[in-house]
Write a structure and sequence with these properties.
- By secondary structure, this protein is α/β, with parallel strands linked by helices.
- It has a single domain, classed as Spore Coat Polysaccharide Biosynthesis Protein SpsA, Chain A (Alpha-Beta Complex), CATH 3.90.550.10.
- Helix content is 24%, strand content 28%.
């Protein structure tokens, strides 16, 4: 199975740390975020497709042609502010079958990743105390996905999107509009349209560590390597 990792964004919320370094290469517990992500992938993932953009040369130099034992294909998002949906469209020519889609700033637990790739159509989710800050899941009566609602004022649930979608190339049959507010094309809107025709199972993740702001890094390190934090504190 192929895994697409969206690693193209400028990481504006992570400034000034990303002024010279792309977010996927920022260190957490002594190794880049993207290394944590790839090391957690199950054995079913045999190929990586990295969507790059901002400071792509650094990511290519770090990951090379083979990364963590898996061959790597690169595709460049010309407008790396175009959104996650635009990034996924860049990977379309390289996809052969059902694939896993990941974000490059979310560190995930390996057990749920191993479970989700066994499904035909699925996604990872986790409960949040502040669902209004994320894409919130609305479910059908059978527990499959009905809709992902971006940052709703009145969330229908506490389950939020954390990345980790198992979808087929049929996702590209669904044309959705660019967001009027942000000017971005969201992959979550594409998945919502896809879910109308494909039963997307929701798999709960036990470990999700989003790293989107500078203050997230010490929090991630406190969770992942508390001994290291104590020894340097």
């Amino acid at each position: 199975m192929q895994c697409v990792i969206i690693a193209a964004g400028k990481g504006t919320r992570m400034m000034p740390l990303t002024s010279e370094t792309p977010k996927p290469l920022l260190p957490v517990c002594g190794k880049p975020i993207i290394t944590h992500i790839v090391e957690a992938l199950p054995a079913e993932i045999t190929e990586l497709i990295l969507v790059v953009g901002y400071r792509a040369d650094q990511i290519k130099a770090y990951c090379g042609d083979t990364f963590c034992g898996r061959p790597v294909t690169y595709c460049e998002q010309a407008d790396f502010a175009g959104g996650t949906g635009d990034a996924l469209l860049c990977a379309k020519p390289y996809l052969r079958d059902t694939f896993l889609l990941m974000y490059a700033d979310d560190i995930q637990g390996s057990e749920a990743l191993a479970a989700v790739v066994k499904e035909e159509h699925a996604m990872l989710a986790m409960e949040s105390d502040h669902p209004e800050d994320f894409g919130v899941l609305e479910l059908n009566s059978d527990g499959t996905l009905r809709e992902i609602i971006e940052k709703p004022a009145d969330p229908p649930s506490q389950l939020v999107n954390i990345g980790g979608f198992v979808i087929s190339p049929a996702i590209f049959d669904y044309v959705v509009d660019v967001s009027e507010q942000s000017g971005e094309l969201y992959v979550t809107d594409m998945v919502t349209a896809y879910a109308a025709d494909h039963p997307v199972k929701v798999v709960t993740q036990d470990t999700w560590i989003p790293v989107g702001r500078p203050e997230d890094i010490p929090q991630a390190e406190a969770s992942l390597c508390p001994e290291r934090v104590e020894s340097t504190g």
